[in-house]
Amino acid sequence: GEIMQAIIMAGGVGSRLRPLTNTLPKPLVKIIDKPVMEYVIENLVAGGVKDIAVTVGYKSEMIIDYFGDGSAFGAKLKYYAEDVPLGTAGGVKNASDFIVDDFLVMSADGLCNIDVKEFCNFHHSHTSRVSMAVRYMPDARGYGLVKEKDGVVTSFAEKPKFVVSGLINMGIYAFDKSILKDIPEGRSDFSYDIFPKLIGDIRTYESDCFWSDIGTLPDYYMTNHYVCMHPNNFRVSI
């Protein structure tokens, strides 16, 4: 059915962003004047996805304090706390009772202005159970490479150590509800544990939107600089 729900993964520690994350969880680290997770929520709401589950772990009370029930942001938020990190797929499984129909999954601590509506429409345009947003990177070192043929994923490569160009997984997915049956209880990750078993059932959606996983301090400052230069693309008033 139509995609009306999303799960945002907000449990990360962001250890590579220290000292910024000594006092804040990574989803609350600010780009210009607002937390990165606020951009994620705003982009979902703009695309018509307002019913959102948030998986939280590290410094979860700070995230819940800031976003509350989501009404200030035009959203409706429900939180799922993880005492032990469950991984991307395990976190989704833990929020199973939230899912009504098809749903999106994305990270709370990366900045991306993907067209949510277009991505949802793409998911409905084919019969595979998974849609994966990918982007072309001239230098894919440190990112998960995806090989595809005619828009269907054929394999996943380890993060390359040398300069290789290709499509990388942005960590933004659309799923049919039935995917929940493929995820075991406990800790598991989509990229390592679940997707390799679903080869042939995953479609790639290539986007040239802005995307940064804000993995390192240089990435963080580069992302701030990019948003400074393109404030209108991110609902920022400078």
The major pleated sheet works out as: 9 strands, mixed
Average pLDDT figure: 93
Distance between the termini: 39 Å
Categorize the overall geometry.
globular
Strand content: 25-35%
Instruction: Determine Rg (CA atoms, Å).
Output: 17 Å
Counted beta strands = 13
State the share of residues found in helices, binned by percent.
10-25%
Secondary-structure class:
alpha/beta
Overview of the structural elements:
There is one protein chain. By secondary structure, the chain is of the alpha/beta class. Helix content is 24%, strand content 27%. It contains 7 helices and 13 strands. It has helices spanning 20-23, 36-46, 60-67, 87-94, 116-124, 190-194, 217-229, and strands at 5-10, 30-31, 34-35, 51-56, 76-81, 103-107, 111-112, 130-137, 145-149, 152-157, 166-175, 202-206, 211-212. The strands form 3 sheets. Strands 1, 4, 5, 6, 8, 9, 10, 11 and 12 form a 9-stranded mixed β-sheet that branches. A two-stranded antiparallel ribbon has the order 2-3. A hairpin with a 2-residue loop joins strand 2 and strand 3. It is globular. It starts with a strand and ends in a 9-residue tail after the last helix.
